[in-house]
Amino acid sequence: MRRDELRKEIVSVYFGGGTPSLLYREELMTILETIKDNFSLVKGAEITLEANPEDCTEENLNHWKELGINRLSIGIQSFKPEDLLWMNRGHGERAGVDSFLLARKFGFKNISVDLMYGLPDLSNQEWENHLIQIINLQPEHISAYCLTVEDKTALSAWVKSGKITPPAEDKQSDQFEILINLLALHGYEQYEISNFAKESQYAIHNSNYWKGSEYLGLGPSAHSYDGVNRRWNVSNNQEYIKNVGVNNTWFTMEILSLENKWNELFLTGLRTKWGVLKADINRLGGFIKKEVIIIEQLLEEGLLLEDPDAYRLSSSGKIKADGIASDLFRV
Question: Do the Cβ atoms of 147 and 157 come closer than 8 Å?
């Protein structure tokens, strides 16, 4: 039904959101066969599966390998039992390492590991120890995300009730700096604010997203972008299943205005090592006077760097990435 929305060759397939590692072998096989029947995949396309450590069993790893999945993203998150407990994770502190080693045993040569920092009661020393444990495993890719408290979540309710006290912003900044410095020391390049890779083994799927390429999202909550429109599917599983292909109530579509495109250019571009290309800025009309003043100030403060072809954040600017991007937003 949606094959005409993405006519280019497919360079990446990403099983993410929710817990795709819970899918049975037959379900994954059906999805992959359907993709191959309806789209053209380049040879060696990156096929990533997000997996919980407890799902990385010998049986599952063998099936995933046979199905052609060539990249795993393992959600270890933390090695601290207390953190895993309140995050409602299904694995213990040792399971993260065990799942990684087992994946290596089954021949997975491209593995990403997810970690979280800025967690309640996580000391800087504990965070550094977590990173050292991961570095010792030598994954090709590491994603590290700072804890954010979102409205209408269990975490938000716990914070309001005083059950959990999130760390202060300066502590989160300290742990961000520890992250950057320690990974750089061990050969990991920070190619996006939260993502680090060895030997340029960037995530193809996510890199294309940050660079503004087209992508097609299938399933509840999935997002799509065709270069002109953004579209997102309803998050309710039953509503999605009931209405998909029957009517248009299972998704919402937004035609991006010039302002939307401008804002997204800076929101995503400034997060990456490639920065915001001057050619893209000029394509959208170039800076207005107010923005020129902001750019000059950021350059003077050392938060922004100017290359012949692009603007990039400095090391100190990366800590303030979202704020800098919002300063350049057009409302």
Answer: no
> What residue type is 304 in one-letter code?
L
DSSP secondary-structure letter at 166?
P
Comparing CA positions, the residue from 113, 137, 146, 128 lying closest to residue 182 is 128
Tens-place pLDDT, residues 98-120: 999 999 999 999 999 999 999 98
User: Distance (Å, rounded) from C-alpha 33 to C-alpha 39?
Assistant: 10
Q: How many CB atoms lie within 10 A of CB 200?
A: 7
Pairwise CA distance, residues 96 & 100, whole Å: 6
CATH class of the domain comprising 3-209: alpha beta
Q: Are 250 and 31 in contact (CB under 8 A)?
A: no
CATH of domain 258-327: 1.10.10
Quote the CA–CA distance of 266 and 78 in Å, as a whole number: 31
147 phi and psi angles, rounded to 5 deg:
-60, 130
DSSP state of 272: B
- Report how far residue 281's alpha carbon sits from residue 262's, in angstroms, rounded to the nearest whole number: 8
* Nearest CA among 45, 43, 34 for reference residue 69: 45
Per DSSP, 118 falls in state S
Q: Where are the domains of the chain?
A: 3-209, 217-255, 258-327
Whole-structure pTM value: 0.93
The upper half-sphere exposure of residue 35, i.e. CA atoms within 13 Å in the direction of its Cβ, equals 22
142-172 tens-digit pLDDT: 999 998 777 666 666 776 776 777 777 788 9
